[in-house]
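Deliverable D4.2, example record:
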Amino acid sequence: MTVLVGYVPNPLGEATLRAGVEESRRRSEPLVVLNMARDDVLVDARRAPADDLARVGRDVAELGVDVEVVQVEEGSDPADVIVSEASSRGASVVVIGLRHRTAVGKLIMGSVAQRILLDARCPVLAVKEDEA
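Output generated by the structure prediction step:
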């Protein structure tokens, strides 16, 4: 079993990472930090630079947590990638960040978080943006 964190390089992503570390410690399970970049756009703000991912791995390891940092470069749907990774790794919980979106924004863009909440076969811990 493992704890899977969907990580993005912003304050919400850092709050999500902290929650994932706490969950990993509570469950005594290794942590997988997953950063996903869409391949159907040229620039994706969710793609973490290599030095940021190295820092994440180093900082979490210094806390005594067994961590694996993974960046998925292919795939245009973050929800599908996260749900698939959680299933293939036998995740006991998925930790994701939530940000407030308008109803129109959800209608036009969809909601990655909503699809993860509905499709994941394990519990999902959602971290609100306000907690960041």
